[in-house]
Amino acid sequence: MFGDFLRRLTAPDPDTLPDSDARLALTALLVRVARSDGDYDSEERARIGRIAAARYDLAPDAATALRTEAEALEAEAPDTVRFTRAIKDAVPYEERIGVIEALWSVVLADGVRDPEEDSLLRLVSHMLGIEDRDSALARQRVEARG
């Protein structure tokens, strides 16, 4: 279903993604991090939906549809390293900082900072070209919002 999209995303020199494709890829990354601890619960799904709605100015139904599509893409996407590097090459830096904040929001959605999620988020931050300090500041912003 997503074969052409994934081929374009992981091409040796990918073009900047159109907004709709960037939305899908970044939401799939949220899903990947949420699934990393083996417990993809309703709170994490709801949080991803709220993030998508706020970030992309979507109605709740459209945000749910995007999340559902992203879940399917995440299941077909290559390993996290290639997938994340492809996003880095195709998405502007400013958007990637916002994604790190959104990822921390998902990781912290269940109130537990799970070691698997934490480890994956460190890897993803690095693969997205985000410095540890910027990731820590993003986490602090999310924690401050509660």
TrEMBL record:
Pfam families: TerB (PF05099). Residues 23-140 form the Co-chaperone DjlA N-terminal domain. Coiled coil: none annotated. This is Co-chaperone DjlA N-terminal domain-containing protein. It comes from Roseivivax marinus. The lineage of its organism: Bacteria, Pseudomonadati, Pseudomonadota, Alphaproteobacteria, Rhodobacterales.
